[in-house]
Specification:
40% of the residues lie in helices and 17% in strands. The chain starts with a strand and ends in a 5-residue tail after the last helix. It contains ten helices and twelve strands. The chain has two domains: 104 residues, Malate/L-lactate/L-sulpholactate dehydrogenase, four-helix barrel (Hypothetical Oxidoreductase Yiak, Chain: A, domain 1, Orthogonal Bundle); 185 residues, Malate/L-lactate/L-sulpholactate dehydrogenase, NADPH binding domain (Ribosomal Protein S8, Chain: A, domain 1, 2-Layer Sandwich). The chain is α+β, with helices and mostly antiparallel strands. The strands form three sheets. The protein has a seven-stranded mixed sheet with strand order 2-3-4-11-5-6-7, sandwiched between helices. A three-stranded antiparallel sheet has the order 9-8-10, with no helix packed on it. The protein is globular.
Length: 349
């Protein structure tokens, strides 16, 4: 399995994106976002996505030079259209605008439609927390990429519809909770499919609603589905996904899930940015966060449990390990990248 430093992988990703038609400045933003996802352990949101991006650029479904276009704006609300541009670029532009508004009014909210895949939601919450803002983000798949069936259903009806909440003030960095409302993210199933490996039990159902560990069933005709999160209480995970579908597709002017969905290109997004200084103040928030963190981490532990994990801990642990040991890319995903590089005339590292 090839292993890369952050710099080598980011430079390679940027070169692939530029050769695929992304302007240099935007390619740098997207490449940095993808490699950060790999760094944080989200390989499903990392450089494996580049062939998908390039294919959509070549087909004309993704417009790599597009920027955020404001459709409607008030003091605290921004309604944006991404013009099917690169999602990481468009979402960063929206977050910058919302932070400016929240710093004046305390809270600002925005929506995006017609934006390419924005990647890992936690990236934007981390970016806001570095500037001492709290945030809430969620997204759907613009009516496409239906992968999750309702409890008792045989066919998928919704996407994996992730949600993220970020809060500044932790001892080792912000607390960022970022998860799909399904048992796993679709990209993690795709990683296993490309790698030719089974998925863990509890992730998938086949087209007849039977448990399976074969990732190919998700992409078959008729398709299987990803289980909602929640185990025996999976109706809660699907219910959360259902509400996110309406928040994102309904408020943005974009699309919710429907029959005969289009091919997946990107997201509708709902975003909220909060400036704590307009509430009880940053000093109070940081004090309470510190006390809460110490209280929760200090709980008596069950025998064999070495530590209590809180939101953001797994990502920080992955970053530390991969800074030390490098970023691994499985053989089949690496093969897909090198095949693309050969076609585009990009040297492989």
């Amino acid at each position: 399995m090839p292993v890369f430093s952050e710099t080598r992988l980011r430079d390679f990703a940027r070169s692939l994106l530029e050769a695929g038609g992304v302007p240099a400045e935007k390619a740098t933003i997207v490449a940095s976002s993808l490699v950060l996802a790999n760094f944080c352990g989200y390989d499903s949101h990392g450089v494996m996505r580049i062939p998908f991006y390039v294919a959509n650029i070549e087909s004309g479904r993704l417009q790599p030079d597009a920027d955020l276009r404001i459709e409607r704006e008030t003091g605290a609300v921004v309604v944006g259209d991404g013009g099917w541009g690169m999602g990481q670029v468009i979402c960063r532009q929206m977050m910058e605008r919302l932070v400016q508004k929240a710093s004046v009014l305390g809270v600002a909210s925005g929506t995006l439609r017609r934006t390419g895949r924005i990647g890992r939601l936690g990236e934007y919450a981390e970016w806001a927390a570095e500037r001492r803002f709290a945030s809430i983000l969620c997204c759907n798949n613009h009516g496409a990429a239906q992968r999750v069936a309702p409890l008792g259903g045989k066919r998928p009806r919704l996407g994996t519809n992730p949600i993220c909440i970020g809060m500044p003030g932790g001892a080792d960095g912000p607390f960022v909770l970022d998860f799909s409302t399904s048992a796993t993210a679709e990209g993690k199933v795709r990683v296993k499919k490309i790698a030719g490996e089974p998925v863990p039990p509890g992730w998938l159902l086949d087209a007849e609603g039977r448990p399976t560990t074969d990732p190919n069933t998700l992409y078959a005709d008729p398709p299987g589905s990803i289980l909602p999160m929640g185990g025996a209480q999976a109706y809660k995970g699907f219910g959360l996904a259902f509400m996110i579908e309406m928040l994102c597709g309904g408020l943005s002017g974009g699309d919710t899930a429907r029959p005969n969905p289009p091919k997946p290109v990107g997201n509708c997004v709902f975003l909220v940015v909060i400036d704590p200084k307009h509430f009880a103040g940053m000093e109070h928030l940081e004090r309470e966060v510190r006390h809460l963190e110490a209280y929760v981490r200090g709980v008596p532990r069950i025998d064999g449990v070495e530590e209590i994990l809180l939101p953001g801990d797994p990502e920080r642990r992955s970053v530390g390990q991969r800074q030390r040991d490098g970023i691994p890319i499985d053989e089949r995903n690496w093969s897909a990248l090198t095949e693309l590089a050969e076609r585009l005339g990009v040297p492989t590292p």
